[in-house]
Design brief:
The protein folds into two domains: about 5-65 and about 160-340, QueA-like, CATH 3.40.1780; about 65-145, Thrombin, subunit H (Beta Barrel), CATH 2.40.10. Helix content is about 20%, strand content about 30%. It has helices spanning about 45-50, 140-145, 185-195, 235-245, 255-265, 305-310, 315-325, and strands at about 25-30, 40, 55-60, 60-65, 65-70, 80-90, 90-95, 105-110, 115-120, 130-135, 170-175, 200-205, 225-230, 250, 275, 290-295, 335-340. The strands form three sheets. Strands 2-1-17-16-14-3-12-13-15 form a nine-stranded mixed sheet. A six-stranded antiparallel β-barrel has the order 5-6-7-10-9-8. The chain is globular. The model has no long low-confidence stretch (mean pLDDT about 95).
Length: about 350
């Protein structure tokens, strides 16, 4: 299939710049993934779509305030650092810009001296290995001086860091939020569980590769980024019990979906695992585990819209997107949601 097969025109005015309040007041398009029939609801109506025999699977990763602004010791020049992955010993792989100001051996100061750093190595891909020095606990210092790494298409400044976290975020390590989960409130989750729906937590630390555009015209040639995930024995047990009893496994977001499909065996049963996945799901993929998907509206030609198309069909998904545009839905990370059932 071609990348251009997944293109659609989106008016820029429909890109959500701010999160809606309350979280579950966002709109919800319910789509029959086989027939394409759709309904317009609000996210709090998801409770009516769930059955007591279902299992809702959420990604409990927590976003790091991974965007830092450092001052070059020698010149006072400002450089942006984006933390990508921890390498141990307070060394992180970072994206730095402008890169010409972050050569090997260059030292930087952050937050009026709360943290300092030195660029150790410039990697082949242009990223830097950077060693950080600080007093106390790294993530506590980061919380004081870091900013949320919002996607490039969000130009408004986020007033409350917690609005780019799910209410169940627990495991620190993501460079981006699993945005389908942003619609849930504690009250809505309580109603879900009171209905008898099981809740299973998995972890996938979302990397910035999730925003990397597909450059190859033949999508089969695209190399997917790798991300670390964890499925605990407890989560596997709940999900497997649901499948054995004939209940539905409903993934909240593409990251939960990728985690489940990575950890499932040929029969759709999960094994407890902690490893990296580079799974790329596009039309033609045979799903092993999930029966339903809650997701946001994604960028044209992205791996995410390809995954959603694989779960339904390209034609049904792109038709639903056109209907969302006509109905003035809000798109992308802070936008509205879709439930494919």
């Amino acid at each position: 299939m071609n990348k251009s097969d997944f293109w659609y025109d989106l008016p820029e005015t429909l890109i959500a710049q701010d999160p809606i309040e309350p979280r579950d007041a966002s709109r919800l398009m319910i789509v029959d993934r086989k027939t394409g029939a759709l309904q317009h609801q609000h996210f709090y109506d998801i409770i009516d779509e769930l059955r007591p025999t279902d299992c809702l699977v959420v990604n409990d990763t927590k976003v790091m305030p991974a965007r830092l602004y450092g001052i070059k010791e020698e010149t006072g020049a400002k450089v942006e650092f984006l933390l990508l992955s921890a390498k141990g010993g307070d060394i992180w792989e970072c994206l730095c810009g402008p890169g010409k100001r972050a050569k090997e051996g260059t030292k930087f100061v952050f937050g009026d001296g709360l943290m300092t750093a030195e660029v150790l190595t410039v990697l082949e891909n242009g990223n830097r290995l950077v060693k950080f020095c600080y007093d106390g606990v790294f993530y506590e210092v980061l919380d004081k001086i870091g900013e949320m790494p919002l996607p490039h298409y969000i130009t408004h400044k986020l007033k409350d860091k917690n609005r780019y976290q799910t209410v169940y975020a627990n495991e620190t390590g993501s460079a981006a939020a699993p945005t389908a989960g942003l619609h849930f409130t504690p009250e809505l989750l309580q109603k879900v569980q009171e209905k008898g729906v099981k809740l299973a937590r998995v972890t996938l630390h979302v990397g910035l590769g999730t925003f990397r555009p597909v450059k190859e015209e033949k999508i089969e040639d695209h190399k997917m980024h790798s991300e670390y995930y964890v499925v605990t024995p407890e989560a596997a047990a709940v999900i497997n019990a649901t499948k054995r009893s004939g209940g539905r496994i409903i993934a909240v977001g593409t990251t939960s979906c990728r985690t489940l499909e990575s950890a499932a065996n040929a029969d759709g049963m999960l094994e407890a695992k902690a490893e990296n996945t580079g799974i790329f799901i596009y039309p033609g993929y045979k799903f092993k585990c999930i029966d339903g998907l809650i997701t946001n509206f994604h960028l044209p030609e992205s791996t995410l819209v390809m995954l959603v198309s694989a779960f339904s069909s390209r034609e049904i998904v792109l038709h639903a997107y056109q209907e969302a545009i006509k109905a003035q839905y809000r798109f992308f990370s802070f936008g509205d949601a879709m439930f494919l059932r």
